[in-house]
Amino acid sequence: MAKAKKTSITVKVGGRKKNSARRPSSTRKRPRVMATWKYVTIAILTTAGVLALAYYPLLRPAFHRFTTCNGHKIYGTCIPQGYSVYGIDVSHHQGDINWERLKKGRDGEPPISFVYIKATEGRDHRDRHFEKNWNAAKKNNFIRGAYHYFSTKSSGEEQARLFISKVRLEKGDLPPMVDVEEDPKNPDIYRKELKIFISAIEEHYKLKPIIYTYKKFHTRYINNEDFNNHPLWIARYNATHPDISNEWIIWQCTDKGRLPGIMEKVDINVLNGSMEELEKLRIK
After folding, report:
1. Catalytic residue among 109, 157, 158, 181
2. Ordered mean pLDDT values, 10 residues apiece, the chain (284 residues)
3. What CA dihedral angle connects 121, 268, 259 and 65, to 10 degrees?
4. Which of 22, 44, 65, 151 fits 122 for a cystine, CB–CB 3.0-4.6 Å?
5. Which pTM value belongs to this model?
6. In Å, how far from its chain's centre is CA 42?
């Protein structure tokens, strides 16, 4: 028997011929669904990234304002209890300071007793407000001290030379302070250069310089006999105690201070002791 020819049925739609065999609707819609989920995923990841980047500079300070204060609400922030001698540390980041207004203080708040002023950084950076701040602090009867920001990019000898050339200490001033907080690529070289710096400062001023740092850095790099015989200034924020076993003399407890005469936020420090201990630190 002769085979019949296969025929296909066509339907004319909108003036065009279209084969009646249609693809499943699920197959046609899949690319659009996949594209939608791709855009949603990208949007979620982008939002998470933006929030993560904004947390520390923007969101964390905002959250901190609403946390419970277990200390004193003074200087526009929360200060731990149990201390009576307060100080600040300043640099050009605080802008032009009205030292007369700072000296008057704010009603109901204890006075600022001491101030450390940034003088130098690395081997060639001089803080542009140092001379003005240094002279104004003395004129307004603040107990003053000068500090150097230690850099990993230059030798201890070069950095000590710069600080010594810039800072002339007088009777009544506080010992120099060295700020160490840059993670070194080579800890052994770093410790060697820091020791050279500290030795040069001590030899020139006949005083043991104070070492400023935070717990993690102290534990990793400088918790040894070369540095533990120097006074320690520890930084730890939003806490009730410094959380370090080593003996310390100053605790930088917040960087959110607000004081009359200073437009920008400022670090607030507490002394581990009374005014008598502060007097003992001063150059005789």
Report:
1. 181
2. 46 45 50 69 77 59 60 93 97 98 96 98 98 98 98 97 98 98 97 98 98 97 96 96 95 98 98 97 96
3. 120
4. 151
5. 0.78
6. 32
Residue whose C-alpha is closest to residue 88's, from 128, 110, 116, 118 = 116
What is the three-class DSSP state of 78?
A: strand
What string of H, E and C letters represents the secondary structure of 251-281?
Answer: EEEEEEECCCCCCCCEEEEEECCCHHHHHHH
The verdict on whether 247 is a catalytic residue reads no
* Structure token digits, residue 128: 């542009």
CB 279 within 8 A of CB 107: no
157 annotated active-site = no
Residue the block writes with tokens 């905002």? 62
Domain topology for 72-281: TIM Barrel (3.20.20)
Tokens of 242: 């410094």
| Three-class DSSP category at 202 | helix
Percent of the chain as helix, strand, coil, to the nearest 5: 35, 25, 40
